């Protein structure tokens, strides 16, 4: 199986730690990376891509110094290397305009408000990683039992 990555981005270490803890159960088959800024996340994505790895999902806070989460996710969305990467905005401070920009410009797949429900976030990440695997045509035979079975069934038996 190719190396799959999930990147979590938040400038507040305690929030980032909580997200990582909530997604920890996926870490036995999915590489989970954390970044404290949009620029750090973009650098990491460049490195992982250069190593031939896949960035399945990016979970980003919105309000951060430098680039906002919407700006980060929009930049990812505009990069052909990451055209299949799924994006989640996780925030407590996005305005209505920010949310619209996230949907229209960054083409996010999901939006979670803080505080989030850990199980809902984990399940959504699992669904998006599964969709990413199928969208990229990756061999999933080794991890099929770990994936979102509803997506697997839809994709294998449309």
Automatic annotation (TrEMBL):
A single Pfam family, by name? Answer: Response_reg
Which of the residues bear the PTM 4-aspartylphosphate?
A: 61
Q: Which InterPro entries match?
A: Bact_response_regulator, CheY-like_superfamily, Sig_transdc_resp-reg_receiver
Q: Which residues form the signal peptide?
A: none
Q: Which residues form the Response regulatory domain?
A: 5-129
The answer, when asked if Transferase is one of the entry's keywords, is no
- Keywords on record: Phosphoprotein
Record-linked PROSITE patterns: RESPONSE_REGULATORY
Instruction: Identify this protein by name.
Output: Response regulatory domain-containing protein
Identify the species of origin.
Vibrio albus
